[in-house]
Amino acid sequence: MTEQDNTPQGPVLVVGGAGYIGSHTVRLLEARGVETIVADNLSTGYRSAVTGTFEEVDIGDREAMDRVFAEHKPRSVIHFAAKCYVGESVENPSKYYRENVCYTWTLLEAMRAAGCEEIVFSSSCATYGNPVEVPMPDTHPQNPISPYGRTKLHMEHMMEDYATAYGMRTAALRYFNAAGAHPDGDLGEAHDPETHLIPLVLQVALGQREKILVFGDTYDTPDGTCIRDYIHVLDLGDAHLRALALLQSGRDRIACNLGTGDGYSVLELIESARRVTGHPIPFEIVGPRAGDPPRLISGGTRAKAELGWEAKHSSLDNILADAWRYHQKESAGA
Ligand code: UDP
Fold first, then answer.
1. For residue 16, which of 29, 40, 161, 287 sits 20 to 30 Å off, Cα-Cα?
2. Could you tell me the CATH superfamily of domain 12-181+230-260+299-312?
């Protein structure tokens, strides 16, 4: 397959395009000359991450979405607009069912009314729940254990039903641990509050935090700390372009993992961050975080077989190097 075959036709409406993974995907679309419209309510995204056409709207606002569809006439949608904190979803499931499930329903209804038929969306390995098999295949049973994971599974089911009943074509991309940043240092991962390991580790390297707390060292893994499959955000973005191009060529359903198949422990990640940054990065072992399985590693084969996708930017040191460049730039500008 050529780059041409893997490039979707525009215009593409990217909802949640001001967020972490969305903004990187928009960059890739723009670099291929695909007309792109970003719709985002800026609840967690950043206006500065969007350089092209921007609509500040809430995807749960049907009237506003009808206007966006009428004005820009997008051929297809890529959907990143969702809440993504497991802990918050346990404390406030109402927010997650409203913003992830209800708002997605509104988006799908606006798409139907506009005759827009293709949608690629961010699902998650959290839809699988506790692994019954590691590495985890694309066909792993889906038994999510958090409200967050359950809302993502509801979104998958809703789209499957819309595909069956209304001829929509849908791709559910189940991410493992999204990580890294754009190599130019302008886009990266910045959540508020920050809970993710890599940004926190780099904040320690920058001297913004005294140490990193390691959640548990008695897991059944070689060094006792949790193992995750870290996938570079540019590799994730590339998979969205490929999935959308495939839907546009007539394929009706795609559901696949996006991970590298390699797992790294928390301590290995800290070691890589020391290598890349040249800083010592002190850590302290504390108790485990509720709901963290010891190992989450993708064993999916569909992304390669069906999308022709392979991770190209996702070595751990490359992920850390790109994230480090972004965090240094951010802290210098702050
Ligand atoms: N983690 C940690 N200390 C932190 C944040 C995360 O030890 O301050 C661990 C966490 O237990 C998990 C891994 O780092 O094993 C990745 O966590 P993160 O929150 O980045 O992503 P998640 O796996 O929850 O999606």
1. 161
2. NAD(P)-binding Rossmann-like Domain (3.40.50.720)
